[in-house]
Design a protein that fits this description.
Shape of chain A: globular
Structural class of chain B: mainly beta
Distance between the termini of chain B: 36 Å
Shape of chain B: globular
Structural class of chain A: mainly beta
Oligomer: heterodimer
Helix content of chain A: under 10%
Number of strands of chain A: 11
Largest sheet of chain B: 5 strands, mixed
Distance between the termini of chain A: 35 Å
Number of helices of chain B: 0
Strand order of the largest sheet of chain B: 1-9-8-3-4
Largest interface: A-B, 24 and 20 residues
Helix content of chain B: under 10%
Radius of gyration of chain B: 13 Å
Number of helices of chain A: 0
Number of strands of chain B: 9
Order of helices and strands of chain A: EEEEEEEEEEE
Chain lengths: 116, 108
């Protein structure tokens, strides 16, 4: 089945530790995104990548890092510099729009990170 | 910041039409309106999008006013599985800006 996988679903870490969240897609999409969601809030964009080996900061990139070495993978590292890392993290992907048309974003199931 | 305004919550009886309004008074001429929904603790799901004309697909209809300053998402026959948070989004370049959405509760 085609789709986006995120693992694990729940993740616990001690304060001060870096942690890497996995995101894999087999949809052959060029663009990938990471969002953060806090309780009762909408999604906020952390980083996005429109092509391999290239990525851009979103609205809340501080304390996070990403890499895009392969088309199908876009891992997110939550570093110890992120002051409030406990949140629900969502990964998404989309095809690059052609001729100005819109390609919907497909979301993974999310990873709920709790920092103790 | 999100460029849309939506009611915080709405209720709808099962089998009836759910009409979810969205205000986007600052929308520019080439910006589309998109709707996503998020069922509790899952990733958002795309529903529909439009520019000027009304749109319909297997999930919903989108009605955009002539001045494009507001729109309404219509779920023609709501079911319990439609209970979710619905986000109205005006696309900012290549990024989606999510607001807090409307929490739709469908009751039996």
């Amino acid at each position: 089945d085609g789709g986006i996988t995120q693992s694990p679903k729940y993740l616990f870490r001690k304060e001060g530790q870096n942690v890497t969240l996995s995101c894999e897609q087999n949809l052959n999409h060029d663009a990938m995104y990471w969002y953060r969601q806090d309780p009762g809030q909408g999604l906020r964009l952390i980083y996005y990548s429109q092509i391999v080996n290239d990525f851009q900061k979103g609205d809340i990139a501080e304390g996070y890092s990403v890499s895009r070495e392969k088309k199908e993978s876009f891992p997110l590292t939550v570093t110890s510099a992120q002051k409030n890392p406990t949140a629900f993290y969502l990964c998404a992907s989309s095809g690059v729009p052609a001729g100005g048309s819109y390609n919907e974003q497909f979301f993974g199931p999310g990873t709920r990170l709790t920092v103790l | 910041d999100a460029k849309t305004t939506q009611p915080t919550s709405m209720d709808c009886a099962e089998g009836r039409a759910a009409n979810l309004p969205c205000n986007h008074s600052t929308i520019s001429g080439n910006e589309y309106v998109y709707w996503y929904r998020q069922i509790h603790s899952q990733g958002p799901q795309y529903i529909i999008h439009g520019l000027k004309n009304n749109e319909t697909n297997e999930m919903a209809s989108l009605i955009i006013t002539e001045d494009r300053k507001s729109s309404t998402l219509i779920l023609p026959h709501a079911t319990l599985r439609d209970t979710a948070v619905y986000y109205c989004i005006v696309k900012d370049t290549d990024k989606l800006i999510f607001g807090t959405g409307t929490r739709l509760q469908v009751f039996p």
